[in-house]
Amino acid sequence: MRPISHYTSADRDSTQDIVLCFCFNCVYCCYLPVSSTVPKWVHQALAPVVVALEKYIPPPYAGEIRGMASLFGGSLSDIVILNFAYEISAFCTSIVAQDKNGSVYHGRNLDYPHPVLRNLTVNVVFLKNGEVAYRGTSFAGYVGLWTGQSPHKFTVSGDQRGSDHWWNWWKNFVSAFLLGRTPVSWLVRETLAEAENFQDAVMRLSKIPIITGVYYIVGGVRAGEGVVITRDRKGPADIWPLDPVNGGWYRVETNYDHWLPSRDPRRYAASKALNATGQDHINMDTLYQASTDQSKYHIAHF
C-alpha cells in the first residue's frame, strides 16, 4: 500500500509546527490486534484518563493525541492505547562508531515484530521559529520517538531492554499513570528538544525515571562522544562509552545487556561485519553495509 501523505500540525494548539506523513488506513490495522490483548479493567481504568487527558498526560502529548484522534476519526482511548503499546515494541540494532579521524557515526535498524508497522513509519521534522529544532523517525498515531537527531549536537536511538512479551505492554501504561514515570520514547523526544549538547543528553537519558528498562544509544559531534546507556526504571544500570584508544571504536546494542551472552545472532553478526570493515574504513556507506549484512537475523528489517 502506498502511503497517503498529509502535512499538518498534529496538535492544533501547539506552538511547534510538526510535519507528519500518515497512512490512515494502516493505523487501525495495528491497533486492533494490540487492543485485543488489553485486560478489560485496563479499558475501564482508561476512561477517566480520556475524560481529563491533560491531567494525566503532559503537553505537548495530550494535545497531539487529541489532534491525531481527530485526524483519524477515531477515539481518544484508541490513540492512547496505541501509544503505550508501541512502548514495548522496539526490537532494534543500534551502532555507534568512531573513525580514525575522530568522526562519530550512528546507525540503527528497526527490527519491529509487527509487519504492519512498515506502512506506519514516518519521518518527523519539528520546527521552532521556522527552523528545524530536531528530527525523528516514528509511527503514525505515535507521539514518542525512538530515533532522532538534534542538528549539530547529538543523535539518539532507543532499543527495548529484555524480553518481556509485547502483549504485556499495558503494564507500562499502569506504571506511567500510577507512578508518574515518563515513557521511554517521550524522554528521547524531550531530550532532543531540550538538551544543549551530548553531555547534557547523556545526563538526562541516564537519570530521569522512566516506565521500563531500555537502552539509549547516543552519538555526538566530537571524538569520543558515543555511548550505550543501559537503563533501569530509576536510573542507569551501566554506562558503556566508546574507548577507541583501547580498541573500543564501536559499540553494538541489540536488546540484551552487552556484558551477557547474546540470545540471538544480531550482535555477533554486526560486530563481525564491523571488525571486517575496520576503523580505517568506517563511514556512512560501510556502516550501512554492516547493518545490512546482519539484517537477515532480524525479526523484520526496515
TrEMBL record:
GO molecular function: hydrolase activity, acting on carbon-nitrogen (but not peptide) bonds
InterPro entries, A to Z: CBAH/NAAA_C
Residue ranges of domain Choloylglycine hydrolase/NAAA C-terminal in the record: 92-260
Keyword annotations of the record: Hydrolase
PANTHER family in the cross-refs: ACID AMIDASE, N-ACYLETHANOLAMINE-HYDROLYZING ACID AMIDASE
Name the record gives this protein: Putative N-acylethanolamine-hydrolyzing acid amidase
Organism: Scophthalmus maximus
